[in-house]
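Hi team,

As requested, here is the filled-out complex form for the NAP run. I kept the field names the same as last time so the parser does not choke. Let me know if anything looks off before we queue the next batch.

— J.
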Amino acid sequence: MNTVTEILYLISAALFILALRWMSQPDTARRAVFAAVTGMVLAVGGTLLQPEIVTYKWIAIAATAGIALGIPLARVPLTAVPERTGLSQAFGGLAAGLVGTAKYYLWLSEGELTHFRMAVVAAEVILGCLTCTGGLMAAGKLAEKITTRPVTYRGQNIVSAALLAVAAVLGVWLAIDPTQSWAFPIIIVLALVFGVLLILPIGGADMPTVISFLNSYAGLSAVMMGFVLESKLLIAAGALDGASGFVLSIIMCKAMNRSVTNVLFGAFGSVQSVTKASEQRAVKSATPTDAAELLANADSVVIIPGYGMAVAQAQHRVRDLYDQLSKRGIDVKFAVHPVAGRMPGHMNVLLAEADIPYDRLVEMDDINPDMGQVGVALVIGANDVVNPAARTDEKSPIYGMPIIDADKAQTVIAIKRSMNPGFAGIDNDLYYAPNTLMLFGDAKQVIGDVVKQLTGEGSAH
Ligand code: NAP
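And here is what came back:
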């Protein structure tokens, strides 16, 4: 490796570490993205300078295909980023699997397959292949192209564990005797099938955590690929990816009060059906005028945004509403649930896009003790994250998940289009509570109407 490449690799490794550091704060997050992109450009540039490259033809073809695929993937709406991430992980896993396979047959034909190389290639191929099909399955579930409900059968965990165990045993076998080449394709097939089986029993509501786990598997396969290709940068970048994905998964499990094993093997979401929704219980509905009056007369308002705000792209109207209420001296805060929306930080990004002051955003644990004193809790397209069943109904699939205690506010105004359930597919008692008013309609439209009332065109003051 030439010195320029070494230096470029060193700089990119440092930039990757800094990017992760900066990513943890909203005000430095933009810088983090810039640092990570620069690091990646330097890493690719450094690799292209390697003297071992004899022709650029295949690299140019692969780069063109990658760019052609990457541009449309980069343009998906924010709400589709989780499934896009699943797809990226599938591609990352596929790349690792293909590099491992190519290296295996190359080294085998050249008689250079040492025990160590074989062990690393086997680990890379297993992790890469399972991440590939796992990522595709997760993307399919998040895009609702595959059922979001857990698919379970008797002895599922045993079958899945046995498949992985056989792949691992064959990997060890090959490491002992790398010429037993019949075993290699079997390892690939087992790992690909295991990736599918890993995701099948996991319900849609756990997909964000699973995506994060897959991120760490993809990172680990990149580490193995780094050993195979003798690239220290890949080892470092893969380790960062693997560790950060794992840490994020743990944080998310904690936010949902779930154990890691429960997420991965618990078949979350299989128990419940939407039974209560068909009971046609009565709800009280309000008009934008009623809502404007209630809000204008409140001392304090806590806005709880959820996935519906993202779908409606209502964040700018929410900002107008915030301005109108703040102007009247009303204390307005935003309660942000860690898994509101469809990806970690989803609400933070949308609210920041609308320039809502960051100090108005309060995390769930900090706002909950005060919810009893709040005048109006305005729920905008949030459902699961304010569902009291998580506190009270032991049979509910979301039981134990921490929620924002919207129901404890003096009055609750809930904006959504219908009585349809949220992501977990379950009914929400909050909507039927005596202190709740439903404000039906598209969030952007409805909040726009409420703002109009507040700006003096309507009857509210
Ligand atoms: P949610 O439970 O999915 O509920 C969203 C609500 O928004 C729905 O009930 C829907 O009701 C309403 N809605 C949709 N479009 C709307 C529009 N245009 N205007 C107004 N309302 C609209 O959302 P959440 O409370 O934010 O909870 C997030 C859920 O997603 C959790 O179960 C979480 O585990 C899961 N999840 C989270 C992540 C993450 O990392 N944040 C990722 C994947 C999944 P209508 O159809 O009646 O309008």
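Two things worth flagging: The beta strands are 300-305, 331-336, 361-363, 376-380, 411-416, 436-440. The pocket of NAP is lined by residues 82, 205, 207-208, 306-308, 311-312, 339-344, 346, 381-385, 415-418, 420, 422-424, 442-443 (CB under 6 Å).

Thanks,
J.
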